[in-house]
Specification:
This is Lumazine synthase. With about 150 residues, this protein is an alpha/beta fold. The protein has a single domain, classed as Lumazine/riboflavin synthase (Rossmann fold, 3-Layer(aba) Sandwich). It has helices spanning about 15-35, 50-65, 85-105, 120-125, 135-150, and strands at about 10-15, 40-45, 70-80, 110-115. A 4-stranded parallel beta sheet has the order 2-1-3-4, with helices on both faces. The chain is globular and about 45 Å long.
Length: about 150
């Protein structure tokens, strides 16, 4: 499949907006660099990272019903540890359900959820701290394209 024909969905949480926005930007820039047509990059949102698994299923189903199936989807979220067990429960649940969707949906579901101990770690992984790290959204965009064409 030619990359320009790929239809890649990005479903992002709205919590931690600055970090999320930069991760989405990185994914979109990488997809376009890999010749995915801008009109074939579909972006929608859900309230938070906990909603990503269900939202991803509904997102994929929606475009399937419209006759415009997605070749891969990148759920993007950010979880930052606080002072309660909430972080561990959400990380575990979201991780397992997103992984399961690869098999349930029969298409690549790229794990685009940062699970960080601090705000600084999340900002670094989103490419927001000069010289610390790169934008992980770029990696997720590249993975979506590779996994979409690799097993045709």
């Amino acid at each position: 499949m030619v990359c320009s024909k790929l239809r890649i969905g990005i479903l992002h949480a709205r919590w931690n907006k600055t970090i999320i926005d930069n991760l989405v930007k990185g994914a979109v820039e990488k997809l376009k660099l890999l010749n995915v047509s801008e009109e074939n990059i579909i972006i929608e949102s859900v309230p938070g990272s906990f909603e990503l698994p269900f939202g991803t299923k509904k997102f994929v189903d929606k475009y399937e019903k419209l006759g415009k199936p997605l070749d891969a989807v990148i759920p993007i979220g950010v979880l930052i540890k606080g002072s309660t067990m909430h972080f561990e429960y959400i990380c575990d649940s979201v991780t397992h359900q997103l992984m399961r969707l690869n098999f349930d949906l029969g298409l690549p579901v790229i794990f685009g959820v940062l699970t960080c101990l601090t705000d600084e770690q999340a900002e670094a992984r989103a490419g927001l701290i000069e010289g610390k790290m790169h934008n992980h959204g770029e990696d997720w965009g590249a993975a979506a394209v590779e996994m979409s064409v690799k097993f045709e």
